[in-house]
Structure of Biotin synthase:
Amino acid sequence: MDLALKIINGYRLGIEEAEDFSNSCGVLEMCEMADAVRRHFFQNKIETCSIVNARSGRCPENCKWCAQSAHNKTGAEVYPLLGRQKLLDVAKSSDAAGIARFSIVTSGRALTDAEVQEIAEAMIKMRSETGLKLCGSLGLLSKPQLKTLFDAGMTRYHCNLETAPSYFPSLCSTHTIDDKIKTINWAKEVGLEICSGGIIGMGESSRQRIELAVKLREIGSMSIPVNILNPIKGTPLENSKRLSDDEILRAFAMFRLVNPTAHIRFAGGRILIGALQKMLLKSGVSAAIVGDMLTTVGAKLSDDFAMFENLGYDFKRTS
């Protein structure tokens, strides 16, 4: 536990040291250390958020994991941007359930100025009529577009790096990690917090998972959604083998040890791991997306809340 104490006191792991540690440490010891770090910075609190798939399908990007890419034949639902009243109604449902944060998510590379304005108008209503903290996952927006959304009440912007910079070109060629980081930097410049994470189990190495964790710290991500690949028929990754329980536990624990003060967030793929979720909640996880994911079914909200309560976590919204 000496390393956990060093991390609590400000020490930060680099890629080489983190890899050496992971290779030499037992998985249960690693998880215990991650949990000690989590308890220090987050006590017993779980931050919840929900998402709405506000525009679906026909994305021009060729991301190999994605059901919504026009390059992949998945049968994903296709519809244009939802209107502001529909977005408000969904937000109010999340608010009534006591969820802390709400994110509007759209398919596609970016949005037009008119679409950004529509979402901004919806967020102004959400800010006045709910107690939710507002987030957006809207692609590679410009700095003025991000400022419009910040002024409307959005507090956090989501743009996943998805995987290690060294592996990303193997999975997508229509945009780059640098494109993402440009948007992330603009979001920070206008005053937004950053939510950025990735997907594990897409063929990357354990070292590349560590590389991603370190890069997320470098870009200042304070909320790190960790998705477990749920292979979708019709995508190039449809036959990917699920990571072992040991690999999943080590990955989550390492995201926590490398990013001690960021939320490590349960995201997509939870339906694949069942009871392992309880172990992960004792291995560094401090936040969760609750309800359905973008194109896959999530856990029932009541089941999530019951699990958090049974494990002694405080998931009640405080403001």
